[in-house]
Amino acid sequence: MSDLTGVVGSLGLEPQSEAPKGRPCVMVIFGACGDVTKRLMTPAIYNLACDGLLPEQFAIVGADILDLDTEKFRARLGDADDGIQKYHTRKQFDPKVWSWLSGRMHYVEAKDLDGYHRLADLVKKLGADYKTGGNLLFYFAVAPRFFGLISSNLYKSGFHEGDGWRHIIVEKPFGTDLKSAQELNREILSYWREDQIYRVDHYLGKETVQNILAFRFSNGMYEPMWNKNHIDNVQFNVSESVDVEGRGGYYDSSGVLRDMMQNHMFQMLAYIAMEPPASFEPDAIRNEKAKLLSAVRIFEPKEVPQNCVRGQYGPQVDGAGQVIQPGYRQEKDVNPKSNTETFAAARFFIDNWRWEGVPFYLRSGKALWKRGTEIVVQFKKAPAVLFRGTPVERLTSNRLIFHIQPYQGIEVLFQAKIPGPTLRLQTVHMKFNYGDTFRSSRYTGYEVMVYSCMNGDATLFSRTDLVEAAWRIAQPMLDSWQSTPAPVFPNYARGSWGPKAASDLIQHDGRGWYEVITPDVLARSALFRDGDELFLNAVIMALRPQVAAAGEMIITKGEIGREMYFICRGEVEVLGDGDTKILKDGDVFGEVALLLSQKRTASIRARTLCDLFVLDRNEFLRILRDNPHFAEKVTEVATKRFKVNVPAEHLIRPA
Ligand code: BG6
User: Fold this and answer.
1) Residue 419: its pLDDT value, please?
2) Residues 654, 628: contact at Cβ < 8 Å?
3) Could you give the dihedral angle defined by the CA atoms of residues 462, 466, 468 and 469, in that order, rounded to the nearest 10 degrees?
4) Atom of ligand 1 nearest to the CA of 263
5) How far is CA 603 from CA 274, 425, 561, in A?
6) pLDDT above 70 for 188
7) Tens-place pLDDT, residues 48-72
8) d(Cα 287, Cα 19) in Å, to the nearest integer?
9) Do the bridges between strand 231-239 and strand 323-325 make them parallel or antiparallel, or are there none, so unpaired?
10) Taking CA 90 as the corner, what is the angle to CA 87 and CA 93, rounded to the nearest 5 degrees?
């Protein structure tokens, strides 16, 4: 047995963790030849080894139906092109750590009871060799329909007997609706006790998700305001730019409601909205989550269409009408007439004292314009009345944004006085960025799951009642979407913000989705290309999202222009006197309105559903006045590109 002392962190790349090591055990992985084991679980265990969090008394047994031996199994996971060297998440691969770990990996072909008996013998031997005290951690990386079979075989081959603990990690999906989840729970609980089962939701393994509770309950600053008296609404946005990535077979019988909302998003909802627990004990936290989920209003059938929107992405086509990327219905293993939703948005209410009347908007989808998960807590506006008689026209809401991924941080948006002799305000932000503050490696999210399970800490795992409460909320949506015809699908283009109905849902309440924008969006316009960080940030704060339906007139010829538009996604037609011109993703129009107050020279109509960012002239001029050094540049672009002569001093003269 090799000793890891002096090996981990030997490359000096990563500091070793100060946390105690996991408890001794043999870990048995079912589905050991599958993708999850290769891409996620093995890199996670390797990360734990790198951080010095695995005990010396530790071994792994892979079990699957393939005819492999231990040598081949180790070679498979250690493969240079399709194994740990590809999937590890450290800055640099450390062969010494891998050799320590892979030396403890074994394989058993387990496709019948004989196989399980051989597995039992090997596990016993390893337990004795590595002095694990009989502790066993099972990881079920298999489809839920096999949970019962594996549990029953383990039982028949005597795994429930003997010394030590038995903990079982099970993967999602945990059921496909309320009834199947209840049946699965019943089945699994006929073999194991609730406290032995660790149901994974990998979002709870994300540092930024775990930090929600730490942030809420370790700071005195926000909790007193965390209620209906101060919070106007909360938005959860989980945008994925990827499509179904070849998983059409699974996805077509799932859809985003089952795949993302019922589990990952409801877990985040529970963290944001639950009451403070009495302690950080696993059940204290899980009790509060369960209470919260059972306070979410369950829709009546007729309420589903009023509160929920679904969408499905269509193909991306080029100017000549050629399909560049397929739509959902053209994906491999997807029914060409599929009505499965790849996008969903919903408005939920939590009927308790804290949250009565506060809408919680949830939105998630595939093939959207960006990858980004954010939770936006929007506070009620301050009363504007005392600003009457000042140049301040309106106050915007304070927002607290939890950036979950890929950008990881927390941001607060608030108003600040713009330096100068008059009272003018600008929305500004304070940002905490994980990368600036903490030095830590990129994790798969599974490390903390395995580590917690080894130590018998169930905080990050779901419980029977939690899983069922979440399905209870989703069930009326599933029923309604099953029994009523889908809207005309596809109803959003690949790369867009989703269907227009999602904007309508929130606009109907007089609110809008908060879109998190990056400077590269701005760089699409010549006006902003060379802007410095300060200037671009000010512009980003001033942009507002707007959705235009196909056929809607965005600009009307002859009207005085007051805004410029970025096309985030979609197509518009410029209806001038000559040929009709088409503008699309990444194009900008109406820039002259920022420079000069004059009549629009052409009308612009949306050809498709359009996602736009709008910048108002007043805001633009205000930002220029605050960044006068940039006015010269704007003048230059105006002359060269738009043939308009706007002296810099005109742009920055007081309003
Ligand atoms: C999984 C879903 O649970 O989560 C996938 O099955 C989805 O469809 C994934 O892409 C998203 O996870 P993450 O960590 O990339 O946000």
Assistant:
1) 83
2) no
3) -150
4) 3
5) 50, 33, 11
6) yes
7) 999 999 999 999 999 999 999 999 9
8) 26
9) unpaired
10) 75
Dig out the tokens for 51 from the structure: 């951080």
Q: What separation in Å is there between the alpha carbon of 240 and the centre of ligand 1?
A: 8
Rounded distance between C-alpha atoms, residue 632 and residue 638, angstroms:
10
Residues 6+ apart with CB under 8 A from 516: 237, 372, 374, 401, 403, 407
Q: 156 CA distance to ligand 1 centroid (A)?
A: 35
Question: What pLDDT is stored for residue 429 in this prediction?
Answer: 86
Per-residue tokens: 633: 């540049």
Distance in angstroms (rounded) separating the CA atoms of residues 107 and 122: 9
Q: Using a 6 Å cutoff on CB, does residue 171 contact ligand 1?
A: no
Q: How far are the Cα atoms of 389, 419, 428, 537, 621 from residue 416, in angstroms, in the given order?
A: 18, 9, 6, 14, 17
Taking the centre of ligand 1 as the mean of its atom positions, its distance from the CA of residue 496, in whole angstroms, is 19
- Substitution candidate for ligand 1 out of 253, 259, 375 with most atoms within 8 A of CB: 259
Q: Domains of the chain, with CATH numbers?
A: 7-171 (3.40.50.720), 205-442+462-507 (3.30.360.10), 519-651 (2.60.120.10)
Q: What distance in angstroms lies between residue 136's CA and the mean position of ligand 1's atoms?
A: 28
- Which tokens in the block code for residue 138? 């099972």
Decide whether any atom of ligand 1 lies within 6 Å of the 259 Cβ. yes
Is there a contact between 223 and 215 (Cβ–Cβ < 8 Å)? Answer: no
Residue nearest to atom 8 of ligand 1 (CA): 259
457-490 pLDDT per residue, tens:
999 999 999 999 999 999 999 999 999 988 899 9
Task: For ligand 1, atom 4, name the residue with the nearest CA.
Answer: 260
Write out pLDDT tens, residues 511-541.
999 988 877 777 778 888 888 878 888 888 8
Contacts of 389 (CB under 8 A, 6+ apart): none
Instruction: Enumerate residues 6+ apart whose C-beta is below 8 A from 288.
Output: 270, 274, 275, 276, 277
* Residue 250 CA, closest ligand 1 atom number: 6
Is any ligand 1 atom within 6 A of the Cβ of residue 240?
yes
Ligand 1 mutation target, pool 89, 200, 241, 264, most atoms within 8 A of CB: 264
Q: Can you list the alpha helix ranges (DSSP code H) found in 167-302? A: 178-189, 207-218, 248-251, 256, 266-273, 282-295
CA dist., res. 554 & res. 552, Å (int): 6
Tokens describing residue 95:
């062969």
- d(C-alpha 493, C-alpha 311), whole Å: 10
- The neighbour count for residue 388, using CB atoms within 10 Å, is 7
Q: Which residues are catalytic?
A: 264
Residue nearest to atom 13 of ligand 1 (CA): 203
Q: Is 414 helix (H, G, I), strand (E, B) or coil?
A: strand
Quick one: average pLDDT of 294-302? Answer: 97
Among 240, 242, 370, name the best residue to mutate to test ligand 1's pocket (greatest count of ligand atoms within 8 A of Cβ). 240
From residue 430, alpha-carbon distances to 159, 401, 427, 433 in Å are: 54, 10, 10, 10
Compute, in angstroms, the gap from residue 96 CA to the centroid of ligand 1. 31
* pTM recorded for the entire structure: 0.89
